[in-house]
Amino acid sequence: MRQPASTATPWHIKPWYLDLSAGQAEHIRQLGSQLQHAIDTRPPAWLVLDGWDGNPAAGRLQALYPAWAAERRTLPDPALRGLEGLAPCLLPLQTGPQHEPDVARRQNLMHDLLGLMWLDNQRRLVRQHVCGVVFIGTSVEELFTQWLLLRHQRPNDGSGAFEFRHHDPRVLQRVWPNLGNAQREALLGPAHSLWQLGATWGPWAPQDIARHQRQLVGHIGEWRVFDRAEVQAPPLPAHRLLNGLQRWLVSSAPCGHQVWLTLALRGLAACEQPTDLEMNQLLRQAQDWGLQRGQQWQDWVLWTWLGTGDGTTGAASYPRISWNTPAWQALATRMKELLRQQPTLGVPELVELSQATEPLF
């Protein structure tokens, strides 16, 4: 990343073809300085990558520092036997570029990685190639033992095993505020702390969607630092960490982002879209109705938010639906009954059949 000739000249990050304003570049430089200070003062730091194969950050690191790339440690997940390149992996930040005699070259590498983290964050639904930095007070082997337990959750309530991608910023940052101290202790395990860039959870502005995918938009997040609580509690079993609400928080995030993306593509301004709290309420209600996660949730939230309009004019054509009001309770009852009979029914068909019983309009 070259120095700007003036405050009006953008910076250019070559690997990802990103253009940054001088202000954006300055903020990335500040983030890099904050992280470097932590690397110098905390226990050994490891860069967290979401897999090596197909990861542009991995390709960049392999090309610049092949010996350092060879030091990576990969999570030995039996579920990915034969596909180890897709498993999370760690690179030691105390070696490799830390001993690069060219300080500017070393700093530029970190700026490159921060630029990619920002790019992935603003696109939301894509793979998060660089997840953050973990500071480990013990061995990587101990950390990976904990990560394997966390990754494969087996709840006590009989709801079935599920994958908990706790290293993903979108996942961890959605669930962390709802964890108790004992759960946080279990999640961190032998790690001293974990640093990630703040992940976005909220409306998606149409102008941000319309811009080139290689142009950074909006406000880059600050570092989110996940430390142990001041008052420590005995950790819980890592493989039975999350309760039902917390599992819902993890599983509902992609649906929320997809709904915001759909509304943005239909031209609804950010102020016309559900807020973060409203989206949580809508997704929770979709689950309570017995709808299946994925397309059913998305279609139901869109239909609820847009009322009987499709939003193609940039705003809802009719008032949004409030299912708890008398005007909508009869339809809600019929829809729920149909869902019990035909749980895989698509939302458009569900609405049509429910209204056919007793026309709404």
Description:
The protein folds into two domains: 11-242, no CATH class; 252-357. The longest helix has 22 residues, at 244-265. A six-stranded antiparallel β-sheet has the order 4-5-3-6-9-10. A two-stranded antiparallel sheet has the order 1-2. The protein has helices at 22-41, 56-64, 66-69, 103-123, 140-151, 169-175, 181-188, 206-210, 244-265, 276-288, 295-306, 326-341, 347-357, and strands spanning 11-13, 18-20, 45-49, 73-74, 89-92, 130-136, 152-153, 162-163, 191-197, 223-227. The chain is globular. Residues 1-11 and 311-318 have low confidence and may be disordered. By secondary structure, it is an alpha+beta fold.
Name the features:
361 residues; alpha+beta; 2 domains; six-stranded antiparallel beta sheet; 44% helix; globular; disordered N terminus
Helical content stands at: 40-55%
Which term fits the overall shape?
A: globular
- Output mean pLDDT: 84
Please indicate the percent range of residues in DSSP E strands (runs of 2 or more). Answer: 5-15%
> What structural class do the secondary elements suggest?
alpha+beta
